[in-house]
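Lecture 7, part B: from sequences to assemblies.

Below are the input chains for today's worked example.
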Amino acid sequence: MSDINFEKLKAIVGEAGVLSDPADLYVYGSDSSVHEGTPHAIVRPQNTGQVQQLLRYADEERIPVIPRGSGSGMCGQAVPVRGGIILDMKAMNRILEINPQDGYCRVEPGVVDDDLNRALKPHGVFYPPTPASSVVATIGGEIANNASGTRSVKYGAARDAILAMKVVLAGGELVSLGATTRVAASGYPLERLMVGSEGTLGVIVEATLRFVPIPKLRCLGIAMFNVLGEAGDAISEIMGSGCQPSMLELVDKVAITAANKAENLGLPEVEAILLFEADGLAKETIDPEIEKFRTICERHNGFGLEFSYDEKERTRIFAARSKLFPSLSKYDERLASTSLADDMAVPFSKMAETANKIHEIAERNGLVMTAYGHCGAGCMHTKILMDTEKGTQWEAAQRAVKEIYEYVLSVGGTTSAEHGIGLSKAGAFKREKAAVLDLMRGIKKVFDPNNIMNPGKLMDGPDDWVGETHLRYQKS
Amino acid sequence: MSDMSKLEKWKGALNKCIRCGYCYEHCPIYKSTRWEIDSPRGKLILLYGLLSGEIEPSEYVAGKLMECFHCGRCQKACSSGVPIQDVYQDARELLIEAGFEVPGTTSQTDADVCALCLNCVRMCKHEARSFVDGRIVTDLLKCQSCGSCLDVCPKQGVTIGRGFGTNPDELEREVAAFFADGRNPEAKAIVFSCGWSNYPGMQTANYEPDAATAEYKVLVTVCSGRIRSETILSTLDAGAWGVLVVSCPEEDCEHGGSPRVKARVEALLKPLAAIGVDPGRVQVAEVAQGNPKKFLEVTQAFMKDVRALGPLLARSEA
Ligand SMILES: Cc1cc2nc3c(=O)[nH]c(=O)nc-3n(C[C@H](O)[C@H](O)[C@H](O)COP(=O)(O)OP(=O)(O)OC[C@H]3O[C@@H](n4cnc5c(N)ncnc54)[C@H](O)[C@@H]3O)c2cc1C
Ligand code: SF4
Ligand code: SF4
Ligand code: SF4
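Predicted structure of the full complex, as structure tokens:
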């Protein structure tokens, strides 16, 4: 890589669009993960033309380019491990078109998810992937990570919302991928390759997304279980019985205890809670769904069942889930909540076993871990609560992460459900995809022959995330 | 070099920050620039770097820490209970001790212009201004950047260098742009909303058709007391049918801005009435922090009045 020519960068995006103070470089070196790196420059393009010029320059000089939305990735996707230019996409933040008639909208990549949904609401529609981080996550970051959320069980992930895309490739070429129509059978669906690409193939500069009508009614239910396995059996039966939940969430005992401790919720400290939502136009179609849920839960010894259509009541019932995330950081003063082995997907029938396994592995390694997730989509999340000052805790975390992913793969699961791979999950990802890593590298080579796009991630990420990357908790 | 190890006591708090960014959308500084370093999360990361020794204290770093409107929204929104404002305050103290006295968003007095009337000293509710060695000085740690002192200075000798969109000239530019020749055909009014009370809207996205169909625009001021009569008049002059100022309830207002702006609008209505301007066109409403519903209600009620009154310039010409 050659030295960065700051004059050149400023000539492209203007003086105010380039940052290089060591403080800025430090701040842009991290995201929501445990990893840290140091870029050489932060550059903020205002339009596609500038992105093209920047990529042309970077490619000629072999300078790494790391596109960045809000840096809310949990696995170090936007962390610059080989220096280079952070391409801050937040100035490309225009919602270009909302077309209710043809059922799509066009946006620039820096638009924040919640902002898009705010703009869509008057049209009676919503963009459904909506991760829990929708208040910060950008559409570009969501596509590049294939984000999803609580309602993806019914409405799909970022992958399912993409119709078309404009992408700038390394070297500066602008390409249009996909089609605005609902169906398209024209060759390789290249727009889908960008989904989950984590900035390694090109820079998304525009996305055409589909949306769905906001349901008139929503009904939320809750059920408690004294045996985690029984909650798991209920999940498999719900998903196997043709039920159509718009949300199906599992919360385990660690999470319940944390929520009670931190937020005084007074939830019964049972082994597991299931939350179930059905939505639609009329009670006549929703009630039978809820009834099925009730019957199945009761069959598996679920108790304390409650349901409500009322918004206030739904918020109260949902507190067990919505307060979970903040509670974890307040669980114990000495423990920090770290995103490690933070997400995975397993077959429905393995949800309960996975949750049990996570607890077993945590205990064996002297860690506190929780298991929760969008179980209706087979998605399981964990957090490792640990004393980051202690080297032994990192060693334990490393062992636990390895064991968890070995288990996940052994039951036919996959390394990431929605948070992506980045650095922390690269080892597990490479083991899972061993047979196709060369195919992936080949694809990358076609898109990015000089390997400037977010190098050192996904299939080229580290096998050992503790030893090979700098962690935010370590002194330099 | 300064001793940043004193930040050690906040190490636990800094470790608690899970870097989720939930504090972003609440920060008026971040909303204005959208650079990570201007976000509450970015500032905490900076402090992390100072503590770990990965970055050195500097004018630039101190400036970033000093840029804050002390609204406390970040801390309220924090998912992890990080005592953000206390951490900032200690860091500011250390940076000042280390010789980095950077004004940031604090108010500064131009000694060449100052009439030494001490109005500002009396006005400051935070005891941040004092008269020392024949001139007015601002205590950088006490100043809350409310702008009240700017408001009462007869010589306009007090300024806040970086307003992040909230200084009167910046507000007036936004107003002019909103009403600029037919750009937003439905444009009717401006709502000046106190940054400490409540303001809605997009985090950072830009949706032009939204502006084109919007009847009003919400502009954030740091304290409602900073809305000057000149700003209200120039807004009407720019083409607004009406102006609404949203302030905190008087009992919540820590800066004295709420009663001041009420008195100012009251005083303005008389001469306006004399030239035929209906008092319904300039209103003040109180909304407490964290009450978006009330904000919407008062704005809608105001817009109803304004629509009924019709365009101002056409009417006064008639
Ligand atoms: C509290 C919290 C909760 C979360 N909850 C969820 C959840 O429920 N579901 C979920 O799926 N995720 C969740 N996440 C993870 C994260 O928010 C998502 O992955 C999100 O999509 C990242 O968006 P971002 O804009 O922050 O991207 P960044 O972190 O900035 O970037 C992520 C990746 O996308 C690439 N990228 C960004 N913009 C572009 C572009 N324009 N072109 C090409 N590549 C680009 C980057 O290079 C990087 O590899 C959560 C994170 C946090 C902190
Ligand atoms: S107190 Fe207000 S202005 Fe200061 S960092 Fe927090 S949100 Fe931003
Ligand atoms: S909301 Fe709190 S935990 Fe999240 S980034 Fe901001 S300060 Fe950190
Ligand atoms: S009146 Fe407000 S801006 Fe002026 S010194 Fe006091 S706190 Fe600072």
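Note for the exam: The mean pLDDT of chain A is 93. Keep this in mind when comparing with the next example.
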